[in-house]
Write a structure and sequence with these properties.
heterodimer; A: 356 residues; alpha/beta; Rossmann fold; 2 domains; 6-stranded parallel beta sheet; B: 306 residues; mainly alpha
Amino acid sequence: MKRTAAALAAVGALALGMGAAQAADPLKVGFVYVGPVGDFGYSYQHDQGRKAVEEKFGDKVKTSFVENVPEGADAERVIRQLAQTGHELIFTTSFGFMNPTIKVAKQFPNVKFEHATGYKRADNVATYAARFYEGRYVAGVIAGKMTKSNVIGYVGSFPIPEVVRGINSFMRGAWSVNPDVKVKIVWVNSWYDPGKEGDAAKALIDQGADIMVQHTDSPAPLQVAENRGIKGFGQASDMIKFAPKAQLSAIVDHWDEYYIDRVQAAMDGTWKAEDTWHGLKEGMVHMAPFTNMPDDVAALAKETEEKIASGDIKIFEGPIYDQAGELRVKEGEVAPDEMLLGMDWYVKGIDAELPK
Amino acid sequence: MDWIVPFILTVITASTPLLLAATGELITEKSGVLNLGVEGMMLIGAIAGFAITASTGSATLGIFAAAIAGMVTALVFAFLTLTLMANQVATGLALTIFGVGISALVGSGFVGFAIEPLPALNIPVISDIPVIGPILFGQDFLVYFSIFMVLASGWFLTRTRAGLILKAVGDSHDSAHAIGYNVIRIRYMATLFGGAMSGLGGAYLSLAYTPMWAENMTAGRGWIALALVVFATWRPGRLLAGAYMFGCISVLQLHAQSAGINVPSQFMSMLPYLATVVVLVIISSDYTKIRLNAPACIGKAFRPAQ
């Protein structure tokens, strides 16, 4: 109800602003966020990208955003409203916006759309996403080196391919340096509930974890790690100020260059409806500074990061067996992106059951 | 068994915000006012407490600010429902929506701020006693305050004249009015108390539980607090037990998962509400029990007779 109200209010505000903007001719760029820009996580980082666009292009662009947009009928309304009010380039940043984006795009062939984390494209719909799992491999290497109990706590949001892929990637990283590492996973069924995320972290620590990894959006698990004197990783943003003694590094979403590039392309008329899935190499995923670890571990982490970027390390290179012992990726082959995008199985060795 | 003490500590912290908010709502409801705006008041308390603590560096000021902010929010509710006689259910829901929005607006400047968590009141020597030391003596101020307040509320409702008057107002505002009590004023005070306690419940989240501000960080705990009051059949003793039980359930499922026991976590999240429904069914099956516990005039507007 609240989200609807917020979305409607925002749409109303956009409609009011329409008249004034028609005189000048800056490129109008719209952003649709699933969460609040104040989450200090996913939507926050997209909004940092929007701000980078504003900073780079100044008067030449006019950006607007609608936050807290529910993934459903409201999304379609919000996206259509943006298209109707003269926005020429519209970024829709959540998986659930995929069908509404495609639908609205058909009605506005002259408007360019960009949908994050989806797989449907059209002549005027491009897709993009980041390979966060590459950062998780680096985190796994660090964790494998740093753990003393060989038990790592992992706070998960929902058992969807994105998160499962992250767990698998993290484990492959950890096992590459320490085959004794075990991971305990707690699902909180929420992207954002700081209290519950924190409690999950406490439960994991009580079960012997001495490194905390999370795939939820608040700094709460990291804060718990700081409080209990163990180490952990930040998520989506550099969270060092929440855990100056605990944060080893953080996987940072970094959309700035991508958004700037795409806006530039739209201005130059070179924009194409293509698919972009970038990672450490292109800078769409960053690692926060390696802190609170010995120099040799930091050096190894740096090296791993560089090797992933250069392609020397291929994270999902065969042979890869799943938990049931079935060979999923043959020796010498690399898992194709389609497999990664639909990953719903754990790699062999993960000592947990995937919730169905 | 190493995990027992940390587990109990986690349960206590998970239960405290529920207990604070529910105690306030219990007193409010006992006076015959149903304020469904607990979630909103908690959020406003959470941001007020966090903003003041982050700006001044004083958690004490932050706690006061949270209580006052909760109270001011409750005052808006009281004015609308008691003075202007707006519908309490609708106004309470509106208050929650308002609280979500205004806290996000005020809080937008505080995203990403880090503060020191509320310190534990460690008492030398006795805090170091194994097992009971950290549990009984190693908590922060609001934990003790929440337990004190629920016990004090029980004492107030059964042992003091003011408490009996409050219950009388909740059970039959016409009778209370007829014998000369100012129904509206008493309901104002009970509602304000409820607001202050909800504000503190929110502050516990943003100052102690997860010391940060995040939009919508109560994540439904206000609704659990409301369910808790019904679950406890408006009795402070049961409220205390219920709050710790609800806290225990939510923490237990996380522990079960990390220990490798597969319990559907959605099922566990549902349990507090399921328990509340069961209690509702039980008390509804016995009319006398409702009469004894639920305030008879709850949610009804009071118009003084001519």
